[in-house]
Amino acid sequence: MQDKVLINPGRISGKINAYPSKSYIQRALALGLLNTHGIEIKNYKESSDSNSVLVSVKKLGAKVVVKDGNIIISGPENFRPAGIDCNESGLCLRMFAPILAVSDREYTIKGTDILLNRGNEYLPSVLKSLGAECRQGKDGIYVKGPIKSGNILIENPSGSQLITGLLFALSKVEGSSVITVKNPVSFPYIKMTSELLNEFGADINITGNNRIIVSGDRNFRSGIVDIEGDWSSAAFYLVAGAISGQISVSGLKFDSLQPDAVILDYLKKAGAKVELKNNAVSVKKADLTGFEADIKDHPDLFIPLVILALNSRGISRIYNCQRLRFKESDRPSAIISELKKAKAKISAGKNFIKIEKSQLNYSVLDTHNDHRLAMGFAVAALNSVSGLEINNTKCVSKSYPGFFSEFKNLIAEIVK
Predict the structure, then answer these.
(1) In a domain, 192, yes or no
(2) Are 393 and 373 in contact (CB under 8 A)?
(3) What is the pLDDT of residue 313?
(4) Are the beta carbons of 57 and 73 closer than 8 angstroms?
């Protein structure tokens, strides 16, 4: 794939199948590692984040067969004494830290410098409170168990990924545990994880939006995980249809627990024409109006919502953006600085981003090695004056390797 892509102004039109959710794939692979009876994962497609987890579970002793878009995986009785490398995957690191702490061996979790130095500050204290050891060294994060059941308070978490890992780990140790979360964010991802684990024999109960009871000593049973289409990446296509043309995306679960399914509510709020029919979501261009959005529980919608706002009359505001500074890039700063090159009317307030309708001028934009910025800039180019050139586009391999070739095939360019 080229590392620099020019997207000219155009109208998107056509039908696609949603790319499988890497969030579900990574969780299913972790379930397979902890499941000696074995599971089958259907509708698997590669991304660099999913591949980091796949390689990790193999190194830890899981038996894995990949064939025709399916994975058959069964876990070992005990993990092998092998370190893992999560590369750029935050879920891999923060999910596996407590999972590896089930063992009494010491493990090293490696990753890129950016990953190891963002959003991991609370890992050591949480794992230590449950009897494990955890520290950050030159080569990565070191974890040594065994973790024990217990009651734990997690205050002001920067995300949900560590809690996801605790649901796996605490389901395997003896005794029951209570996790109380003060000021939770991305809590729908916790519900998503608990539903998956409960389907395979866990006993996790969530009361309200801050208390989780996990019964331990669970023996996961065999079964099939059919991976849903990914609402996070589909959101870019749905926004593209709303601002310039029409698109139909199939393979999305209408009652999904994925937080980013809420993109449909924002599209309707802005005035887009949205139809759910025959297992497909169709969105058509409309006269859009400004809106307000609070992305506390669905931060991955930040960039598609910015692009939607750029094409909506009036002023839009997106709230609770502060923790996005610690994603693959400092997303709020990056998107403001890059879009301003193209003369976008966008600025930062106190914990919100303000966006006015803007037609973008030709500019060369950098993705800051952030897959969601890359996809967002592609959509933004559709209504630009003379296109946008996007640098470092290979980063989309993190979640959606074929995005640019697929996206360009759906565009009818406007000849001026």
Answers:
(1) no
(2) no
(3) 97
(4) yes
305 and 403 part of one domain: yes
Q: Nearest-5° angle of CA 237, CA 243, CA 248?
A: 40
Residue 296, C-beta contacts closer than 8 angstroms, at least 6 positions apart: 185, 186, 319, 320
Structural domain of 234? 4-19+229-413
Rounded CA separation 367/375 (Å): 9
How far, in Å, CA of 367 to CA of 393, rounded? 7
Q: Which residues contact 98 (CB under 8 A, 6 or more apart)?
A: 126, 127, 130, 132, 147, 162, 165, 166, 168, 169, 170
Strands 141-144 and 106-110, sheet pairing: antiparallel
Nearest partner of 195 among 24, 325, 58, 76, judged by Cα: 24
Do 336 and 409 lie in a common domain? Answer: yes
Matching residue, tokens 């409960």: 198
- How far CA 129 is from CA of 137, 145, 149, in Å, comes to 20, 12, 10
Estimate to the nearest angstrom the gap between the alpha carbon of 244 and the chain centroid.
25
Say if residue 69 is in the same domain as residue 139: yes
Q: How many domains does the chain have?
A: 2
Per-residue pLDDT reduced to its tens digit, 44-103:
999 999 999 999 999 999 999 998 889 999 999 999 999 999 999 999 999 999 999 999
pTM: 0.94
User: DSSP letter string over 176-239?
Assistant: EEEEEEES-SSHHHHHHHHHHHHHTT--EEEETTTEEEEE-S--PPPEEEEPPB-HHHHHHHHH
The answer on 142 and 80 residing in a single domain is: yes
